[in-house]
Amino acid sequence: MEPSLARVDYLQVGVTAQKTMRLLPASGKKATQKVVVGDQDGVVTCFGIKKGEAVPVFKTLPGRKISRLELGGALNTPQEKIFVAIGSEVRGFTKRGKQFLSFETNLTESIKAMYVWYISGADLFLCASYIYNHYCDCKDQHYFLSGDKINDVLCLPVDKVKCITPVLACQDRVLRVLQGSDLLYEVELPGPPTVLALGNGNGGDSGEEIVYGTSDGKLGLTQITGTKAIPRWEIGNEKKRGGILCIDSFDILGDGVKELLVGRDDGMIEIYNFESTDDPVLRHDYALSESIASIQGGCVGKDGYDEILAATYSGWLTGLTTEPVHREGGSGEELKLSQEMQSKISSLRNELEQLQIKVLQERDKYQQSSQSSTAVSSVPAFSVNDKFTLNKDDASYSLILEVQTAIDNVLVQSDVPLDLLDVDKNSAVVSFSSCDSEPNSNFLLATYRCQANTTRLELKVRSIEGQYGTLQAYVTPRIQPKTCQVHQYQIKPLSLHQRTHSIDQDRPMNTLMLKGQFSFAEIHSWVVFCLPEVPEKTPAGECITFYFQNTFLGTQLESTYRKGEGYFKSDNISTISILKDVLSKEATKRKINLNISYDVNEESVRHTLQLIHPKLEYQQLLAKKVHLIDALRELQVHEGNVDFLLPKYRSILEEADQLLEEYKRQPAHLERLYGMITDLFIDKFKFKGTNVKTKVPLLLEILDGCDQDGLIAFFDAA
């Protein structure tokens, strides 16, 4: 049975952060529930719905922004105490709005994640960027310093597992399971986890099941036992949808089994059903125009009708309700509905007219005051939610910009060469400006003009490893007076590398060794400068190892360093060459003398060429096919029938649209591969002290022939 869900927009509050909206427990079965939401203006709003209108229960005064909102209550009692995290403080409110708690923690940073559980008293599990603290009745119990940023936290239900087991979702693609202040074990995940939820809403029968969502859109369930984690299921992101921000379990289909509700940062709401198998199946999805910050199932709009309530980034509380919009039945019932709708539309029209008059009055007042010589125009503040991430599938960076109001235009500028790639979901009109790369180091200047009511824009860029600098986005919304915000994103020297849990140690490796009078913090800062996904905070301990994979080629890098020495191993000699150049430059800036040595494995060059060659062959074949399309189409028009053509040419005509689309999606892909092979050739001989740049034209001729054996022979003979 497909769920029939109708959209209802209830109320708009200020901009909301992830997991800041909850439904209070209902007073009776199928009775409507109150909604409580915290926004970045610092306001906690609690409201119910009567006759389709939002009726406030309480509203707090504005203040610092609210980063999390959770419900709590003693075991086997309604979870109706409201806890909000504001900066480093936790405040508690009753369901009527009376404040009963104001707890200033000893955290030096703002709280990023919070979980509440009542055991003997109120247990608060709080996380700043890297620090986890457990408080019981406001007394500090346990503390843990994480190796990377903490995105979310929860605790397994103590009434089922009989011990306190907190679980941290960390940016370095692991779940850290704790016992007291100690790390029990780590669970490796396929992507950086952004949100955690208890399986089935209660941890399942054992209380050990945790559902996680990742920033690259993957979803999975793992069982957290006392000694190890047991993966149960995992769903990839084949549809290339956004990252997951919120998860809930609720029986929206009314079949007695709770469905999994998922909210993504591209505005998708998904309903997964556990039909006959243990693995969930996507049953229904619904697209909103902005990211889903919070999601929960319940009964909000009308008694007896379940719905999914979502809070979006700009503060809209939107319901997907099972209540039929057009009821079937007697004409009296239809007439009653029609009258209700008419009165609602009439009141909305009146409200809109009053707002338009008020806007005109304020605009006139502003224009008159601006004539005065003493008048100062205040710049309107607006919030921008941005995300700059590397996609493993196509080795490109996604830049997502989301504004609380409509975007007028976005100007993108870069001081390093970048390719702008097409994005299917992007309806903005892009125009390129010519830029002078020599005096100003300006390689890219493009403007995206957005259509009316566009609040979210997604761009894709691909960088070249070895060339590093800054990408800047100038965001201008449709507000008066005109104002703009600049957001900067670092393009790192090894920008196409992504963290991974392990590498293949059997590959032929080149090694770079550094020794010198540098501290652990200094060499760590150099690695942060060179590579993405490395935590900015210096790791605890005396030594650290990170593993990386190149998303474009599949080559690997192992980085191990401590105070006074660093070892970098890669099967790609160009990676070692880039690291050598950048680390030398960074050490010279700080006047640190480095002793650099390296061990080059000749076999690694052949290995890297074997990795590149299939990609090169595919791209050359694609380019040849695309160049033939126009001639073949002309032949088709003249002859009318193409049966006389060879099958390979007929297939090119049949697949012409797909071939053109693929070629358009990957501009300069072939040039990138040519550049990588050329760099590999130059780097191989650079480590031998030989300059082979004069032989590059000969190499390019061989590349056009695309013979793998001939290419390897050329590298060996040169």
TrEMBL record:
Tell me a GO cellular component.
neuron projection
Q: Where is the BBS7 GAE domain?
A: 380-489
GO terms of biological process kind: intracellular protein localization; non-motile cilium assembly
Stretches assigned to the BBS7 helical hairpin domain: 602-715
Tell me the keywords, alphabetical order.
Coiled coil
Question: Where does the BBS7 platform domain start and stop, copy by copy?
Answer: 497-599
> What's the superkingdom here?
Eukaryota
Family matches, as InterPro entries? Bardet-Biedl_syndrome_7_prot, BBS7_GAE_dom, BBS7_hairpin, BBS7_pf_dom, Beta-prop_BBS7, WD40_repeat_dom_sf
Q: Which residues form a coiled coil?
A: 338-365
Q: Glycoprotein among the record's keywords?
A: no
**Looking at the keywords, is Zinc present?**
no
What region holds the BBS7 beta-propeller domain?
Answer: 21-322
- Mind telling me what this protein is named? BBS7 protein
